[in-house]
Specification:
- The protein is mainly beta.
- It has no helices and 36 strands.
- The protein has a 4-stranded antiparallel β-sheet with strand order 6-33-32-31, with no helix packed on it.
Length: about 375
């Protein structure tokens, strides 16, 4: 009897990348090896989209270390070397060092904090320096106040209500539950606690806390073992906050301990695979509801590998389009995402556009068992 020719189809890869388990343990919907491949909403695998130069030319002098979308103005704010730029314009502020600053928006103004030079407020025309504000690396808006870290201490400062220029000398709290390490990242919490209180998340590199009282800065520990790598290593979507650190990618609703989301690729976060000595470089961002995390590989001093995480299905894929920083622009309907080049001076790209990486072909692969 003649044999029949049958079509072999590979459809469902929504388990994502699994580099941890032996071949015999890989689930049918998992991928043992892939690069520059993404998964669509139905589990189909395809090569990722590329990126294009946002401005078509270098902006400023130096590498891009931070990006922030100033929603009130509709401007992209960039830290490039020591200079602060809006879109592709000249620097409106120059720091004394290229240490990364933190940024937030309050009352329509841009609030910036630098670990050496302290805080600045920019109204789109003039830069001012609020008296009494700390020098630090991370700043956030919560409960009608501006909250800021203090460099080399566990101290968090908060402004007067509705006034980012006023920093009373008693408006601070020391987060010294586990150790005296510096708070490196402030981020919004997802939900209310059992008492109906909102919260602000404060991360050290090895622990996480929830500030629940905006009048006193009172807090509780939500995770004594895991935190955020840097001041740009946290991103929120769908009511949860995601962070990357030297142990992997985690998420929390702001109430419960951090939950590991990168277990299937945990071997990639070993010290022989990534540079665990440079957590300050780790960056997180999002494109619509897809999350992106960039880190440096072992022996490298710039981000060189990125991971894409789909939060509802949970899969993670690996890419070469690493970023030094991300900024989501606009709302989820019209959103685009800009990112800084880790290696090309002053280059800012729009991600998930076209079929090449700034004109270079995208090499991809996918292996199945």
């Amino acid at each position: 009897m003649a044999s029949k020719i049958r079509e072999l189809q590979f459809r469902n890869f929504n388990g994502g990348l699994n580099t941890r388990d032996n071949p015999s343990e890989i689930a049918p919907n998992e991928i043992p090896d892939a690069i520059n491949v993404t998964i669509d909403d139905r589990g189909g695998a395809q090569k990722r989209l590329g990126y294009v130069d946002r401005f078509g030319a270098q902006v400023g002098t130096g590498l891009v270390s931070n990006l922030f979308y100033w929603a009130t103005r509709g401007w992209l704010v960039e830290q490039i070397g020591t200079g602060m730029h809006v879109n592709n314009g000249a620097a409106f502020l120059t720091w004394s060092t290229s240490a990364r600053c933190g940024m937030t928006e309050f009352l329509g103004n841009l609030i910036l904090i630098h670990p050496v030079d302290g805080m600045r407020i920019y109204d789109g025309t003039t830069v001012t320096s609020p008296a009494g504000a700390p020098a630090g690396s991370t700043v956030a808006t919560w409960q009608n106040r501006v909250w800021a870290s203090q460099v080399a201490t566990p101290r968090i400062w908060y402004s007067a209500i509705g006034d980012p220029t006023s920093w009373p000398g008693t408006n601070w709290v020391d987060i010294r539950e586990k150790n005296s390490g510096e708070v490196v990242c402030l981020a919004g919490a997802g939900g209310l606690d059992v008492s109906g209180r909102p919260g602000l998340l404060a991360f050290k590199q090895d622990s996480a806390y929830r500030i629940y009282d905006s009048a006193t800065g009172a807090y509780n520990t939500i995770d004594p073992a895991h935190g955020a790598a840097s001041n740009i290593s946290a991103v929120s979507v769908l009511g949860r906050t995601y962070v990357v650190n030297t142990d992997g990618i985690f998420s929390t609703d702001g109430l419960e301990p951090l939950e590991l989301r990168s277990g299937l690729i945990e071997n990639i976060f070993h010290k022989d695979q990534i540079n665990q000595n440079r957590p300050d470089l780790f960056a997180a961002g999002r494109f619509h509801n897809r999350l992106h995390f960039s880190i440096p590989k072992a022996g490298e001093t710039a981000n060189s590998i990125s991971f894409e995480l789909e939060p509802t299905q949970g899969w993670i894929m690996r890419h070469t389009n690493a970023a030094s920083a991300y900024a989501a622009i606009g709302d989820n309907v019209s959103q685009e995402t800009a990112f800084g080049s880790p290696s090309a001076q002053g280059r800012i790209y729009n991600m998930n556009v076209g079929g090449s990486d700034a004109g270079a072909a995208i090499t991809s692969r996918l292996q199945t068992y």
